[in-house]
Amino acid sequence: MANTSSVNGKETMGMKTKRTILTVIATLFFAVLSFIIVFPLIAGLIASFRPGTELIRRGLSVDLDFSTMTLANYKYLFGNNVDGQRYFMWYKNSLILTAISVVGTLFICYVVAYGLTMYNYRLKNFLFFLVIATMMVPFEILILPLYKEMISIHLIDTIAGVVLPGICGASTIFFFRQYMTGLPKDLLDAGRIDGATEYGICFKIMMPITKPAFAAMSILCAMGAWNNVLWPMLVFRSADKFTLPIGLNTLLTPYGNNYDVLIAGSIFGIIPVFIVFLCFQRYFIDGMTAGAVKG
Question: Does residue 295 sit within a domain?
Answer without folding.
Answer: no
